[in-house]
Write a structure and sequence with these properties.
Elements: E1 6-12, H1 16-29, E2 35-41, H2 48-55, E3 60-63, H3 69-78, E4 85-89, H4 99-109, E5 115-117, E6 132-133, H5 138-146, H6 148-151, E7 161-162, E8 166-170, H7 171-176
Parallel strand pairs: 1-2, 1-4, 2-3
Antiparallel strand pairs: 4-8, 5-8, 6-7
Helix pairs in contact: 1-2
């Protein structure tokens, strides 16, 4: 494959069914020929790796000798990424439309945007509120710790931060920060 459009990194630990559903959703809604899919496997014992090799031979697998965690798993996998964009994705997510193309189009059209994420839904189609965070400043921390954020949710600016459930970044941004994901 020539240089892919997006390198997708998924950290896995015993998530065989989730990985299978994730990759099938990519095949359903995206052009996988334009993608580099990398699974950073944290020493799974459920047959995940064997299943991926059999059903999705185009997927690259980085086998970690032990469970090194989410952060280190992502950090290691980035060294294999060849695309101009890197998508960090949780293994239990699925695409329900051509969402990756929309994220890439946004980045192509908005050159000053370094990273973007998508709306994450529960399996019933409702918004997954755990994937929305306020900016981690002292005032926001006070609101959470005091319980005020739960009594008065409108006091928080929850649009300002997104989580790595589905996070697309420009590759050059990664090189600016050594090991951005903490283990």
């Amino acid at each position: 494959m020539e240089k892919p459009l997006v390198s997708i990194i998924i950290v896995n630990w015993n998530g065989m069914e989730e990985i299978k559903a994730f990759i099938k959703s990519l095949e359903r809604f995206e052009d996988v020929a334009e993608l580099q899919i990398i699974i950073s496997d944290n020493n799974s014992t459920d047959g995940s790796i064997e299943m991926v090799r059999e059903k999705f031979p185009y997927v690259e697998i980085l086998e970690n000798k032990k469970n090194i965690g989410f952060g280190a798993g992502n950090n290691r996998a980035v060294s294999l990424a060849r695309a101009g964009y890197i998508l960090f994705a949780n293994p239990d997510m699925e695409f329900v439309e051509r969402g990756l193309k929309k994220l890439v189009d946004l980045m192509e059209n908005e050159k000053d945007v370094a990273a973007c994420g998508c709306m994450v839904l529960n399996s019933d189609g409702s918004f997954m509120s755990q994937c929305r965070r306020g900016f981690p400043d002292p005032l926001t921390s006070f609101y959470y710790l005091s319980g005020l954020a739960f009594l008065f949710p409108s006091i928080l600016n929850l649009e300002s931060i997104f989580t790595p459930t589905c996070l697309l970044i420009r590759r050059w941004m990664w090189t600016r920060f050594p090991a951005p994901f903490l283990s």
